[in-house]
TrEMBL record:
Protein name: Uncharacterized protein
Domain of life of the source: Bacteria
Length: 119
């Protein structure tokens, strides 16, 4: 707003700024509407998280045993995705576990992490 006031003070026709101000206001309202819905996701309860973990079986033994078929099943059940960014030398990991459980009906929660390869 101060920029617009300064422009008017410098001699810019105020009518020329109306469209710019209206567009900025519309963009601001759109962002505010989006932000109002961002925090409204359903959080998982402790019981739902435990149910998700329990449904995966013994993850530690599967990882330690390292049998390719077992690892494939685990990664598929986690819907594990890896994305390597060479410029950043980083791997982005996301997991969206699918769980067949009455306690987790209808909810999903994708987990994200970033692993930097620079140590």
């Amino acid at each position: 707003m101060r920029r617009h006031q300064a422009a008017i003070a410098a001699g810019v026709d105020p009518a020329a700024l109306v469209e710019v101000i209206n567009a900025a206001q519309a963009a601001r309202e759109a962002v505010q509407a989006t932000l109002a819905t961002v925090g409204r996701t359903d959080a998982l309860t402790d019981a739902e998280v435990y149910a998700m973990v329990d449904s995966l079986g013994d993850v530690g033994a599967t990882l330690k045993g390292g049998a390719p078929d077992d690892l494939t099943r685990l990664y598929e059940s986690l819907r594990l995705q890896l994305r390597y960014e060479p410029q950043e030398q980083a791997v982005y990991v996301s997991a969206s576990p699918r769980v067949v459980s009455e306690r987790v009906r209808g909810r999903t929660c994708t987990l994200f992490t970033r692993r930097s390869l620079n140590r």
